[in-house]
Each structure stands twice: as C-alpha cells, then as structure tokens.
Amino acid sequence: MIKNIIVVAISAIVISFTSLKNKAFIPPGTVQISETFFADETEISNFAWQEYELSVKTKYGYLSPEHLAALPDTLVWRQKNSSNEPYVKYYYRHPAYKGYPVVGISYEQATAFCKWRTERVKEFYYIKNKKEITIEYRLPTKEEWELLSSVPSYFFNNGGKNKKGEILFNHCWMTDSIWKKHIKEHPEPADVTAPVYSYWKNNFGLFNTFGNVAEMINQKGICKGGGWKHQIEECRAGKDISYSQPTAWLGFRCVCVITK
User: Fold this and answer.
1) Which of 6, 41, 50, 60 has its CA at 20 to 30 Å from residue 29's CA atom?
2) Residue 106: CA count within 13 A, CB half-sphere
3) Among 224, 186, 221, which residue's Cα sits nearest to residue 208?
4) Model pLDDT for residues 68-103, shown as the tens digit of each residue
5) CB-CB contact of 100 with 50 (8 Å)
6) pLDDT at residue 260, as a whole number
7) Residues 252, 260: Cα–Cα separation, whole Å
8) What residues have CB less than 8 Å from 206, skipping those under 6 apart?
9) Which residue(s) pair with 21 in the sheet?
C-alpha cells in the first residue's frame, strides 16, 4: 500500500514538472491574444522606461549620445493645457509616479525601446531555457490596435460612466461648470494621467486602451484611443489622432509576436 502511494506521488511530481516545463511562454507583462500574438496589459510605465534608460546608461555612459537619446522630454508638461511646473521635475523621476504611463516620448524613442526589449527578452529566455526564441516587440498596426481596443458595448454610454456614475476611463469628460461638484463627490480624481493599472479592463484584459494617454501605432504621427485631455468623441476606436512631437498626453504599449 505504502509502495503504491509512493509510486503515485512520484508520478504526480513528474507529470507536474513536465507540464510546467512545457507550459507556453507568455512574454513578460503581456496578455495572450492568439497563439503567437500578445499585447501589453498596460501602457509602458515610467518604471519600465527607467529600466530601459538605466540599461542604456550602464552600457554607454551617463553623458553618451545614446543615453541622452533615451531620456523623455519632461518639458512637455509646459505645453499649453498640459498641467503645471511640478510635473516637469517630478512626473518621470519621483517614485510616486513610477506606476504612471511614461510621456514625452517620440516615435523614434518608442521604436528603440521595442528593439531593446526584444533583445532583453531573448536573453532572458535563453538563460532560462537554454534555447533561442524568435520574438519581436513592436508598435501595433492600426488594425491591430483597433482589435485590441475592444470594450464592452456600454463603455461609451453616459459620457463614459457606468450606472453608478463611476468613470470607466480617464478622459476629459468634465466641463468647468461641473468640476467643483465632481471634486466634492470624488476627492481624488485623476488631474492628468492615472496609474497604468487604473479603471476597467477591456474585453481582452487590457487596461486603458481608451483614455489616460493616447497610444502610438506603427504609423508615425498617428495615435489612437485618446488621452486624459481628449473629449470622449476623440477616444473612439476608429478615430485617428495626429501628433507631431512628444506630448504630455501621448504614450504607447507594445505588441509582441512569437514565430513558432
């Protein structure tokens, strides 16, 4: 009897180990959309960008052109209607904002980040599994982003609020006349961006595909989803928003493709 129990226990351990070993690889920070296609659960945060910046600084040096090219433009907070001076100093560097979406990023910087991330995940996978993986992080196409942005049908009803009056995503829905009333009812609203893990997930389990920060796609100069300063009409899936430079309302998320 005891021998049979031991045999069964050993078999269970072997099966569990085999299952764990053969478990499909999910790229860090992503949600699986199809067998080989993944998307970031959130917008790229200040913390994620700081990891990238540190890697570049360590490799090339503090005053190197490569490190300087990796720095966000914090002066975007001085742009018209962007906010006020403290964000210039604190938004990117202060620990309180590490979980907020990175802004002040150019298209070129975003694509460089995707390339760096691809190489780091390849290294991570090889160290862990002793074999290579064909993987690529990149900005989504317009069609991919519109697919990923799928939300419940009620999402845009009632000014982007649910039946309880709770805001479903971070956009500029308030007029000046009701702002004071909102402050009384919700003492801590998002004045600009909100943390990347805020509001409601969409149909794919992604946060903030609409609102918070508009998201770059692979077509330079076009972003989708709208940001904290955009009206609800600008946050529709089919709406393209133009940009010409880094701003305080523009960020991005990556998609990831694994080639079997």
Assistant:
1) 60
2) 10
3) 224
4) 999 999 999 988 666 678 899 999 999 999 999 999
5) no
6) 67
7) 26
8) 31, 39, 40, 41, 42, 148, 253
9) none
Vertex 50 angle, CA 115 and 241, to 5°: 65
CA–CA gap between residue 160 and residue 158 (Å, rounded): 6
Please give the Cα distance from 177 to 25 (Å, whole number): 50
CA gap 212, 226 in Å, rounded? 7
Q: What are phi and psi of 191, to 5 degrees?
A: -80, -35
pLDDT digits (tens, 9 = 90+) for 8-23: 343 333 333 333 344 6
How many Cα atoms are found within 13 Å in the side-chain-facing hemisphere of 130? 1
CA distance 119 to 147: 26
Determine the pLDDT at residue 4.
45
The residues, ordered by sequence, that sit 6+ positions from 77 with a Cβ below 8 Å of its Cβ are 83, 84, 85, 87, 88, 91, 104, 248
Indicate left, alpha or beta for 42 from its phi (over 0: left) and psi (-120 to 50: alpha).
Answer: beta
pLDDT, the chain, mean: 86
229 burial level (CB within 10 Å; 0-12, 13-18, 19+):
buried
